Amino acid sequence: MKLLAVAIAAVLAAIVRIMFFTPIELLQGAAQKIYYIHVPAILSAYLALGIVALMSIVYLWLHDERADRLAESAGEVALLFTTVTLSTGPIWAKPIWGTWWTWDARLTLTLFLWFVTAAYLVLRGAIDDPIMRGRYSAVLAVLAVLLIPFIHLSVYLFRTLHPMPIVLKPDRPSLPVEMLTTFLLSLGAFLVFCVALIRARYRLALLRDATAVP
Amino acid sequence: MVPNAPGFLAASWIVARKDLAIELRTRSAFLSVVMFALLGLVIFFFAWDPTAVSSLDLAPGVLWVTFTFAGLLGLHRSFGIELEDRAIDALLVAPIERESIYAGKAIANAIFVSAVLVIAVPALALFYNLPLGRAIVALGVVAVLAAIGLVAIGTLFSAMAVNTRMAELLLPMLSLPFFVPIVLSSAQASTRLLANRPFGEVLPWLKILVGFDIVFAVACTVAFPHTLEE
Fold it and tell me: What share of chain B has pLDDT > 90, as a percent?
């Protein structure tokens, strides 16, 4: 539990620094500060999704229930961080792009990552037998890894063939030192928070399996 | 392996023939799925302002969305019929490889959804007043590629979904994200084919479809034995 407490403190500290000790960006104003939450959140989601994919392959290979439990824990945390990304994005996009949502390749891909992660968790919830649950969800996770390049390719082609009237994200100028420090602090805090949540969720899964009625 | 056991392709065909025979004798799924597809095409027509969007732009999207949903109805039955009296056990004890059960089911499903398309595409051309003409052969190729991808994914997920609670809900939830590249590519390819655009504009979408079919036909065949009880 110590790690979780440290992680929560670090995230709170990062938020205080973002709000009070980081300069306001000249062109985008206060909206730019979402960047310090948005990007660390999606990178944490990628970390968690990477763990799901890796542990699913390990489970199909070794049939070790620890791998399945870790995949389950990381899957739930991945859904949380993808949700944070998908909800902070539109709040930034409305003042900057002038629209809450656009079918940009990255947005679309993140949305489908969210759908597949949610389906993964629903599938887990719909199977009682632990061995079947482990196998089915691992198969889904491995297939989802194969799906990502295809979704990316097709939505990318879709967008470039049909350019949309959106204000494209300009190339970000290299960040001033204060902003970069804030970003890196926030990223560090989020990644530790992500690991701490997965660990806490893993312990919960252990307790549940230990007390489960066979 | 038993000495006189059939090879992979022969075994797959036996499984496929069994499923097709059941369908031919009952015809319950085929007729309902065709009706569903026709209703889908018709209902979409009324959700659309013909003076604002030309039917040429709308029809391919309508076709592939309807086809995907109709396909899901048929695919759900694929392993649903094995639940009764635990018929799946008979397949599992048969002296054939597990992969050929999947391949056989997938072949039967591919024939099933292709038959639906054979009725749905002319109906679409009729209702939406489409100039099929020269594009018909190329559209057929797109349809076959789309059907292979749909069936590869759908057959595997059907096998998984029947063993869960809420199977009817879970199959679309699992499958639809995987159908995105198929629906997108087929709709884009058919729009360009119907508009007589140069083939170079169609080719990238066909490449995605072919790549998707190969990757998922192999991956789902390999994954299938993991979804069965030992």
Answer: 50
Domain annotation covers residue B99: yes
Write the residue in A136, A151, A154 that is nearest to B227 by C-beta.
A136
Of B177, B188, B229, nearest to A112 by CB-CB distance is: B177
| Nearest residue on chain B to A61, alpha-carbon basis | B226
Local structure of B155: helix, strand or coil = helix
**pLDDT tens digit sequence for A46-66:** 999 999 999 999 999 999 999
**Tally of structural domains, chain B:** 1
Closest by CA position to B178, among listed A113, A133, A80, A121: A113
Chain A residues with CB under 8 Å of a chain B CB are 60, 112, 115-116, 119, 122-123, 126-127, 132, 135-136, 138-140, 142-144, 146-147, 150-151, 153-155, 157-158, 161
Instruction: Sort out which chain A residues have CB atoms less than 8 A from B158's CB and list them.
Output: none
- Whether residue B34 is contained in a domain is answered as yes
Is B2 within a domain? no
Quickly list DSSP for A41-93. HHHHHHHHHHHHHHHHHHHHHH--HHHHHHHHHHHHHHHHHHHHHHHHHHHHH
Residue A179: closest CA among A22, A37, A31: A22
Instruction: Return the residue in B145, B163, B182, B228 with the most chain A beta carbons within 10 A, the one to mutate for interface testing.
Output: B163
pTM: 0.89
B143 part of a folded domain: yes
A36-45, A172-181, B161-170, B210-219: lowest mean pLDDT where?
A172-181
The C-alpha atoms of residue B61 and residue B187 are separated, in whole angstroms, by: 5
Q: Is residue A25 part of a domain?
A: no
Residue A168 lies in a domain: no
Confidence of residue A162 (pLDDT cuts 50, 70, 90): very low
Q: Which residues fall within 8 angstroms of residue B163, CB to CB, at 6 or more apart?
A: A127, A132, A136
